[in-house]
Amino acid sequence: MEQKKIAIIGCGNLGQAIANGLLAQGNIAAKDITVTRRRTELLSDLGDQGVCVTTDNTAAIQSSDLIIVALKPYNIVPILQELKGHFVSGKHSIVSLATGINIDQIDACLDVDIPIFRAMPNTAADVRMSMTCIATNSKDQAAIRLVKNYFDAIGESIFINESLMDSATVLGACGIAYVLRFMRAMIQGGITIGFDAKTATQIVNNTVKGAAELLIERKEHPEYEIDKVTTPRGCTIAGLNEMEHNGFSSALIKGIVTSFEEIG
After folding, report:
1. Of the candidates 119, 95, 126, 98, which has an alpha carbon nearest to the alpha carbon of residue 17?
2. CA-CA-CA-CA torsion for 178, 182, 187, 192, nearest 10 degrees?
């Protein structure tokens, strides 16, 4: 990976997950990462690993090349307007993680022509398993490679049309919570049928991991793999049918659509 200095402005939960993932990747030195937050004590774990922790956004930008802005959507415009004089054409690229703030809005905050990206990783970046969707209108191939390389270091990344970024937020970022809620319910079911909580959790975690790997490796539709474990009059199809009778798939789809509508 091309070595650049990186700053994460507004390093909350997602920013920390990205920083931890980059550190775990091993090719990025802690001294090349700067993170900012008002309450720096919440970033002490990163500081202990050698990351530069500061409240000074200006200094973080000036000492870095790639700027990841992990601020809340309602903060990003006013803060970028305050910081706009510190971005340098030919040096900086900026990546916004904010939902609902488009590239044109970010560009309008800045007085300089620099590559602008939007990215939506998820908190699995912490363990280098994020699925990150990226959008840009930049033609700067060096910047595009740089951004993709960094996000590939914390999982897998794909480029999508900016019009789909809100959808990516729901499916990829909110999706972590949906899957975890499903897993929690599986664990509760496991306890109900006789397992202790620790054993049920181990079984569920690895079952879900295995199911995902089947689809990733074999590139088959989920129903193809489902058909392999549903035998006539068997317990699997009986359970699946009961879940569908109670609205399992419908509830999940409605939840995804509701999250998407909330962004709008």
Report:
1. 126
2. 140
Tell me, what DSSP letter sits at residue 171? I
Pairing status of strand 130-136 against strand 6-9? unpaired
Q: Phi-psi region for residue 101, left (φ > 0), alpha (ψ -120 to 50) or beta? A: beta
Report the DSSP pairing between strands 93-96 and 66-69: parallel
Which value, in Å, is the radius of gyration of the alpha carbons in the chain?
A: 21
Please write the tens of the pLDDT for every residue from 208-248: 999 999 999 999 999 999 999 999 999 999 999 999 999 99
Average pLDDT over residues 102-127: 94
SS (H, E, C) 27-38: CCCHHHEEEECC
259, 170 Cβ separation under 8 angstroms = yes
Structure tokens at 172: 């990829």
Query: What would the two tokens of residue 15 be?
Result: 């920013």
Is-contact 11 36, C-beta < 8 A?
A: yes
Domains and their CATH numbers in the chain: 6-160 (3.40.50.720), 168-263 (1.10.3730.10)
Q: How far is it, in rounded angstroms, from Cα 207 to Cα 183?
A: 10
Residue 219: CB atoms within 10 A of its CB come to 8
